[in-house]
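Aim 2 progress update. The chain analyzed this quarter is reproduced below.
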Amino acid sequence: MSTTAPPSAHPHAHAAPDTHAAPDGRPHPGSDAHPHRRATDRAAAEAAARPMRRAGDHVVTRHSVSLVVPARNEARNIPWVFEQIPRCVDEVILVDGSSSDATVPMARHCLPTVRSVAQRGPGKGNALRTGFAAATGEYIVMIDADGSMWPGEIPHFLHFLDHGYDFVKGSRCIAGGGSLDLTRVRSLGNRALLTLANRLYDARLTDLCYGYCAFRRSFLDALDLRSTGFEIEAEMIAHALRSGLRIAEVPSLELPRRSGRSNLHAVADGRRVLRTLITERPGARPSAAATAEEQR
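Predicted structure tokens:
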């Protein structure tokens, strides 16, 4: 399955207009029908038709967008994250993991319209599943609250959803992406797990253990999420591949956590991701949807 952006349509060949004029200065009948058109008009029209690439560009989407932000003791990071959220986001859902600091009051102070929901159980997987269940938008975007993911990249994800893709994931390993926080151990682990995932799922992904994703809420049942920890990100991708969803990768720059310490444990969580990839591989077990169909 191809995971790259759809190729742009090839420009149509335009016949060169007859620019030879008659002796009296008037154009021949076969010349351009709009002799007074400025030479820059066509370039301006073509530029307007191109997709917008800069995060600052205004994006107009006909679909409602929910942003799910799991957080636990992120009061110092919330202000920066929330002030970077672009206007194309219609709903922000903060999933609080029993924070002992002012995470929830800070979120409400920064964004009075934020919806705060209590996490149903321990772990990032539980937090995301809680947020997805509460989301009402047609598109769902997931982002971390520690400042390692720039909300200004959200329009890039929405662009591909608007143009036919079902699941869009950020990649730190394609042109325009990168990481300012990836340690050597995490990098080696990500490469190993990525190689395994591509082989097991017959895919051509460039990044795996990175949780900046967006998808159509109508496919939430197809994703069939059950994980409770950090492995939910791998589970989402595994189930998206297994379900035949149209997947695109977009470049993303991972930033250093702005403050505090991460709850990620590279070795332990890496093992959980490995177990998820093997358990969820095609043919390993029937999906929940297939099982329900068989029981009818």
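Residues 1-55, 288-296 have pLDDT under 50 and may be disordered. Residues 226 and 232 are 8 Å apart (CA to CA). These observations will guide the mutagenesis experiments scheduled for the next reporting period.
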